[in-house]
Amino acid sequence: xxxxxxxxIDRAEEVAHEWINELGDYLDWADDKRxxxxxxxxxxxxxxxxxxxxxxxxxxxxxxxxxxVYFEGWNPAVNPAKPRNLVAFMERVAEKFxxxxxxxxxxxxxxxxxxxxxxxxxxxxxxxxxxxxxxLRFLFPE
Length: 142
Known about the structure:
The protein is mainly α. The chain is built from 7 helices and no strands. Helix 1 (7-27) crosses helix 2, helix 2 (32-48) crosses helix 5 (86-96) and helix 3 (52-59) packs antiparallel against helix 7 (122-131). The longest helix has 21 residues, at 7-27. 27% of the residues are buried.
């Protein structure tokens, strides 16, 4: 990997690649662009279903480049999204990543939350889980 010469940026790039590789292992996918696209779509859906305060609290625990992806295109004035049910969540992911390209979309989303569970504090993930409507919580296993 080429080095930019700025340690923080170089490390941020490495961590982002680590997240993509880890998620690829969970999903059993090899295409980094596909993995990144799905991570981005799912993070945006999660963000949009949280209050502004909770979305910011989750972001604070994300690595620098992943945090940038998470905030990309965010309009906090419309958070949380409405409606906030399972169908709306799946549609929100599909807006940015066609779910017909995913064998089991719910399991794939759960893989993203598994990744978050590994890297975000248990307390914060509990807050995120509780912020979701009951019909969505199965996507956020502990």
